[in-house]
Specification:
- With about 130 residues, the protein is an all-alpha fold.
- The protein has a domain of about 80 residues.
Length: about 130
């Protein structure tokens, strides 16, 4: 299957046919930004909880500070997981589509080579 269409244009066309969602889609971008906000907010909560618990001698306020710090740590972990999930998802979808395209191209090359192959063992076409 030989075409005069450039390889990059063919790849973009086949991505459109496969209906692979754009990595910059609105919902994925929302979750990605939420993950970044949770990471930053969680760090701020953790630091403020540390400062609150260490700048007082009242055990009730120290307990509140510790709870605030643990909530900040939890928010940071959840935000990191969201950020990793949605940043890697877009990349891995594109990578898998690229792998599929490259394997298809390899199969086309192998089929062309088999067409030009002489079954008697005297190959006229170079490999």
């Amino acid at each position: 299957m030989t075409t005069t269409e450039p390889r990059a244009d063919r790849f973009v066309r086949e991505l459109a046919v496969l209906k692979i969602p754009d990595p910059a889609a609105a919902r994925a971008t929302l979750w990605l930004r939420l993950g970044v906000l949770l990471m930053a907010g969680g760090l701020a909560l953790g630091v403020s909880g540390y400062l609150v618990s260490h700048n007082t001698v009242d055990p009730l306020v120290q307990g509140d500070g510790l709870a605030l710090g643990l909530g900040g740590i939890s928010a940071t972990v959840v935000g990191s997981a969201l950020f990793l999930r949605y940043s890697l998802t877009g990349f891995l979808r594109f990578w898998m589509a690229r792998q599929s395209y490259d394997i298809d191209l390899l199969a086309d090359r192998l089929l062309e080579r088999d067409i030009h192959h002489d079954p008697t063992g005297n190959d006229a076409a170079p490999r």
